[in-house]
Each structure stands twice: as C-alpha cells, then as structure tokens.
C-alpha cells in the first residue's frame, strides 16, 4: 500500500512509520504544523507541534529513509479543536481535545487530503489495534491504550487507518527506537493539552472568555458558599481550587456537582451526590450489529470501566450502569467495549450529555 505516516516528532509515530516501511508499504512521512505560533522548544513534556518537534520528525524520516513533508493545518486545528474546546467549556461541558483532533484533523482533514493525493491509508503511532476482522481493539499495553480517543472514528475511517504499535508496550517501542538509532528514543511523551503548553487551562480559558464572576452554591441547601471568576474554570467532580468561604457542617470536602452557564452558577456537594447510574449521550458512532449490548463502558480517558447495558434509540445512547460512577461530565466520551479473548473490542462511542440516578428518574 501507499501510506502516509503522520509523524509528530515523538517516538511512537517514528517507530510506527519505520514498521510500516518494514512491512513493505510505500511510506511518506508528514508532520502536521498545528500551532499558529509554534515555539522553538518544548517545556519538558508539555506542548507539541513545536519547531523542535518538526525537526525531530524530519530527522527520524531521514534515518528511516522515507520522503518527508510538513503540512500547515493550523487553521483547521484552531477552528475544529481549539475553538471547540473553548466553546464547550463556555457551555458548561468538559471536552476532550485529543478525541476531537483525531476525529476532525488526523482522520478527516488529513485522511481526505491523503486519499485525494493517491494514498491508501494513514499510519499513526496510536497505541491501539485493528484486528483481522477490522474491529478496533485496546492496545496490549493497557496503561498506554488510546482506543478511547479513537472510538469516535467511523467504519470508513478505520478502514483506511494503520496502527502498527498496538501489539507492543511503550518500553518495547522505546527499545526499538534506540536499536534503530532514532534520536527520539528517550524523548518525553507529550501530556496534558498540547495547545496549552504551560498547563494552565483555567488561565487559557480566561484569556479567551474573560472574567465572569458568579456564585458557588450548595446543591442541597442552595446556600451561597463562595464565588468564582468563571464557571468555565470548573469540571464535574473537581475538588481542588473551590475556595469556599463557608465550610461544610460535617467537615467533609465538597465537589463540583453541576455547572450552569445561564446563571453562571457552580453547584457543589458531598462526594456521594456525584454518583450516577444512568448516562445519556448523543452523536453515537456504533460498530456493533446489535443496538442493545451488555458491555463495559469507559467514561473518561484512562478512567475505570463499568459494566453496563447500552441501548440506542433515535440517535441517543443510554447506558444503565451496573454500579454507580462518579465524576461523569457532559462533553466527555462514553466508549463501549466487549471483552474478547483477543483483546477488548470497541463497540462504539458517543458524547455524554448527562448523568443521573435511576431512582431519581423513576
């Protein structure tokens, strides 16, 4: 096959490109320039898409022996990922920008351009597997598994995707990179949000949305417990940074239960009030032949899995959890998995709209 290898400048994408070449594919490397104002150097493991990353990707392509290009996709990234991130927080939701980047950039904009140029598929360094049956599965390295952020991909997109690293652990990938004399073998993994290199998400959002003071209230009594400079600075389940003026009568900590942008109110309460056992979600991407499935669901990146009964009706996914979950935030993805002898299979995903208690719904 003639394949396009997306090379971020990290160790995973470099080894993925090398493996694709070893497999006999005609490989071309491409680095996606996603930042409008790329910095020359990273700050440790924070940030990506810098000039340093572009140079690292080019050097890796030279060592592997494949052609290499840089594609400027800063505007597409800003419109589809950064703006979406800001707008979602402004609406009281908690988005996952990595999921949106995979959906809108790597496997929509990039894949569309690649196909138009005559490529058959796009290769990435994601830790996930595509079985012989074409189904998306978890990586063998559960700690690095990225199937959660890939579950939004459609069947057509998965048919043109290649994930060479799904059968390897991160340690094996680094060892292979060193054996191949790739300079990125020991390069730190990028973490947090790539376009917020200092890690200050609240500061980034305030720079975009401005200060918007409001109240923090008790979910049970309605009492005002404190104030905030912007409801967008909070997420469901958050405990730190609440700065409450009135301590709880029982002395226990309080957690964010809900965010209401219309009234600019953040509601808090005890940990048990976070529990939900019914999750609804929209924008489903479903790969199973059945509309109803007893399965396991993951409600946030690297979160624990919960057994659930999942159903689809009129474009809405409903998951009835076998045991309560906490910290379920609108805007995150719910991903359904079916345990399998060859590794957990992704059944589908959807974007969470709400979590509730079945008893409260009765």
UniProtKB/TrEMBL annotation:
Signal peptide feature range: none
Keyword tRNA-binding set for record: yes
Name the record gives this protein: tRNA-specific 2-thiouridylase MnmA
Encoding gene (name): mnmA
GO molecular function, one term: methyltransferase activity
Record-linked InterPro entries: MnmA-like (IPR004506), MnmA-like_C (IPR046885), MnmA-like_central (IPR046884), MnmA-like_central_sf (IPR023382), Rossmann-like_a/b/a_fold (IPR014729)
tRNA-specific 2-thiouridylase MnmA-like central domain: residues covered: 203-269
Active-site residue numbers: 101, 194
Catalyzed reactions per annotation: S-sulfanyl-L-cysteinyl-[protein] + uridine(34) in tRNA + AH2 + ATP = 2-thiouridine(34) in tRNA + L-cysteinyl-[protein] + A + AMP + diphosphate + H(+)
Function: Catalyzes the 2-thiolation of uridine at the wobble position (U34) of tRNA, leading to the formation of s(2)U34.
CDD domains: MnmA_TRMU-like
SUPFAM superfamilies attached to this UniProt entry: Adenine nucleotide alpha hydrolases-like
Enzyme nomenclature, EC number: 2.8.1.13
The organism's place on the tree of life at top rank: Bacteria
GO CC terms: cytoplasm
Source organism (scientific name): Actinoplanes lutulentus
Family stated for the protein in its record: Belongs to the MnmA/TRMU family.
Cell compartment(s), UniProt: Cytoplasm
BP terms from Gene Ontology: methylation; tRNA wobble position uridine thiolation
Keyword set includes Acetylation: no
Interaction with tRNA as annotated region, ranges: 144-146
């Amino acid at each position: 096959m003639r394949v396009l290898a997306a090379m971020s400048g990290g160790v995973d994408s470099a080894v993925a490109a090398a493996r694709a070449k070893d497999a006999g594919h005609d490989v071309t490397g491409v680095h996606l320039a996603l930042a409008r104002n790329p910095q020359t150097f990273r700050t440790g493991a924070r940030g990506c898409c810098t000039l340093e990353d572009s140079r690292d990707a080019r050097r890796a392509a030279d060592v592997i022996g494949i052609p290499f290009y840089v594609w400027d996709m800063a505007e597409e990234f800003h419109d589809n990922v950064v703006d979406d991130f800001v707008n979602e927080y402004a609406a009281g939701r908690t988005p996952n920008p990595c999921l949106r980047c995979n959906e809108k950039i790597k496997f929509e904009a990039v894949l569309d351009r690649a196909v138009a140029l005559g490529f058959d598929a796009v290769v990435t360094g994601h830790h996930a597997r595509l079985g012989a049956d074409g189904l998306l599965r978890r990586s063998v390295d559960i700690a690095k598994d990225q199937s959660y952020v890939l579950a939004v991909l459609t069947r057509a997109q998965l048919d043109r995707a290649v994930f060479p690293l799904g059968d390897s652990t991160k340690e094996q990938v680094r060892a292979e990179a060193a054996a191949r004399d790739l300079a990125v073998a020991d390069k730190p993994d990028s973490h947090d949000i790539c376009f917020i290199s200092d890690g200050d998400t609240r500061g980034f959002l305030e720079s975009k949305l401005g200060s918007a003071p409001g109240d923090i209230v008790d979910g049970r009594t309605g009492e005002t417990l404190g104030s905030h400079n912007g409801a967008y600075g909070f997420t469901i389940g958050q405990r730190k940074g609440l700065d409450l003026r009135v301590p709880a009568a029982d002395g226990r900590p309080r957690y964010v239960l809900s965010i209401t942008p219309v009234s600019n109110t953040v509601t808090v309460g005890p940990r048990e009030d976070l529990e939900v056992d019914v999750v609804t979600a929209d924008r489903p991407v479903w790969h199973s032949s059945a509309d109803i499935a007893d399965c396991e669901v993951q409600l946030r990146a690297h979160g624990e899995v919960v057994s659930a009964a999942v159903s689809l009706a009129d474009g809405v996914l409903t998951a009835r959890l076998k045991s309560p979950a906490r910290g379920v935030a609108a805007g995150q993805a719910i991903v359904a998995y079916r345990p399998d002898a060859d590794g957990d299979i992704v059944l589908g995903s959807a974007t969470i709209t709400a979590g509730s208690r079945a008893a409260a719904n009765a």
